[in-house]
Every structure is written in C-alpha cells, then in structure tokens.
Amino acid sequence: MDASGDPSEMASRTTLARLAQAGVVPVSTNAVFCELQRTWNRPDAAEFGALYGAYAPNYQAVMESFQKAQEALKPEKK
C-alpha cells in the first residue's frame, strides 16, 4: 500500500477500499519484509538488515548508533 503512487491521500484511500472490497489484503513493504524474515535468528539476518536499512533510513540510523555504542563498550587495546 505504500507503493501505490496515488496523487493524494483520498485517491490512496479509495484505491485501498476498492482493493479490499475485491478481497485483496493490503500490506506495507514493512509487513512483507517482516513476513519474509520472520526472525533475526537466522544466518542471513545481516542481509535482511541491509535491505531493511535501504528501505527505512531511520532503521539504518538506529543500527549505526547501536554499532557505535557497542564499539564504545569494548575495552581499549594497548
């Protein structure tokens, strides 16, 4: 539903209502990512994270912040 390209919110709502009446279950890109991934406990989790970061810049910013915080917790090497 976030890729409809409608020119206005009203057009988008009308499109979604018509699709729902026809039996379509509208979903967002985020929902599709989550359904495909299912869990972070998988060998390709980093690849999913990279895809999600490309779609959601806010997610990418959070991940970068988390990585920097983890690096800051590591003891300094002498």
Could you characterize the architecture of this molecule?
This protein is an all-alpha fold. It has two domains: 1-30; 39-78, no CATH class. The chain contains four helices and no strands. The longest helix has 17 residues, at 57-73. The mean pLDDT is 85.
Number of strands: 0
Global shape: elongated
Oligomeric status: single chain
Give the proportion of residues in helices: 55-70%
Radius of gyration: 19 Å
Number of helical regions: 4
Q: Please trace the helix and strand order, writing H or E for each element.
A: HHHH
Largest sheet: none
| Secondary structure category | mainly alpha
Please state roughly what percent of the residues sit in beta strands, choosing from under 5%, 5-15%, 15-25%, 25-35%, 35-45% or over 45%. Answer: under 5%
List key phrases describing it:
2 domains; single chain; mainly alpha
What would a concise description of this structure say?
64% of the residues lie in helices and 0% in strands. With 78 residues, it is mainly alpha-helical.
List the helices and strands and how they pair.
Elements (H helix, E strand, L loop, with lengths): L8 H13 L7 H9 L7 H11 L1 H17 L5
Helix pairs in contact: 2-3, 3-4
